[in-house]
Amino acid sequence: MAADGDIKVHEATYHKVIAMLKWGAVGCFVIAFTVIWLISGK
């Protein structure tokens, strides 16, 4: 069984990864929107 300290470290890493994925999704949306806007020529 994992020690209590190990669980806290893994939980902190999990939260950091989830935050990174959320910001990555926002970044991808912004890039995709910019590319579509540039292609449309408006």
TrEMBL record:
Keywords: Membrane, Transmembrane, Transmembrane helix. Coiled coil: none annotated. Residues 2-31 form the Cytochrome c oxidase subunit IV bacterial aa3 type domain. The keyword Cytoplasm does not apply. The chain crosses the membrane at residues 20-39. This is Aa3-type cytochrome c oxidase subunit IV.
